[in-house]
Design a protein that fits this description.
- With 213 residues, this protein is an alpha+beta fold.
- 42% of the residues lie in helices and 14% in strands.
- It is built from eight helices and seven strands; from the N terminus they run H-H-E-E-H-E-E-E-E-H-H-E-H-H-H.
- A three-stranded antiparallel β-sheet has the order 3-4-5, covered by helices on one side. The protein has a two-stranded antiparallel sheet with strand order 1-2.
- The protein is globular.
- 31% of the residues are buried.
Length: 213
């Protein structure tokens, strides 16, 4: 019987060692954009919003929203987001991502090359122009275009971002339906913080999405 107990103890010790090894070697958990306000808070804010007709794109240019700016050392905003949103991201001396894995929450795709990803402005720059940023200073527009504090920037599949363009939620939502509630909360959070207006169709689309959360 002592031999049986010894073998059991040995097996338990081996299993524990394997578990520790697996934990140490497990891929690093993927980070994410800052958490948006809750669905309840987003609904409460939308209840206070008086829709306004979208403004004109007259005078708009992406150059009026300087990005990507240096955040620290040699790292600019794009590189910071790629590192934040990826798993096991390795960067070179200039802060460029040379390897890693990225999950695109909009479409559920996973990528291993940074070149396959765009950094999406959740509230697009052109959309912000039509809803209030046309009156901002260039310095304020720069802050908006490089906002790492709100859920405004996210690494996603490049052609998905390009298909979105400058659309608001009345005309575009992530194809991954399970992410739409999060996306709506992100959108409302950003617009609320930056004091940007919403048109009627945009508000209706957000209310309908959030009511299903």
């Amino acid at each position: 019987m002592p031999g049986v107990y010894a073998r059991r103890l040995s097996l338990c010790t081996a299993a524990a060692a394997l578990a520790v090894t697996a934990l140490v070697n497990a891929p690093a958990a993927q980070a994410a954009p800052p958490a948006p306000i809750s669905a309840a808070a987003a609904r409460a804010y939308l209840a206070t919003v008086t829709p306004q007709a979208e403004g004109s794109l007259s005078g708009y240019s992406r150059t009026l929203f300087p990005h990507w700016i240096t955040q620290s050392g040699t790292c600019n905003t794009r590189e910071v987001v790629l590192k934040r949103d990826g798993s096991n991201v390795v960067t070179d001396s200039s802060c460029a991502a040379v390897s890693g894995s990225w999950y695109s929450a909009y479409d559920g795709a996973t990528w291993t090359a940074a070149s396959d990803l765009d950094i999406d402005h959740v509230v697009p720059l052109a959309e912000s122009w039509r809803s209030g940023s046309s009156s901002w200073t260039t310095a304020k527009r720069q802050q908006f275009a490089n906002d790492l504090t709100r859920p405004q920037l996210i690494a996603v599949t490049d052609n998905v971002n390009q298909a979105k363009g400058d659309s608001d939620p009345a005309h575009w939502m992530p194809s991954l339906s399970s992410y739409r509630c999060t996306y709506a909360r992100m959108w409302v959070d950003v617009k609320q913080y930056w004091g940007l207006s919403m048109d009627s169709a945009e508000k209706t689309a957000l209310v309908n999405t959030l009511n299903g959360c």
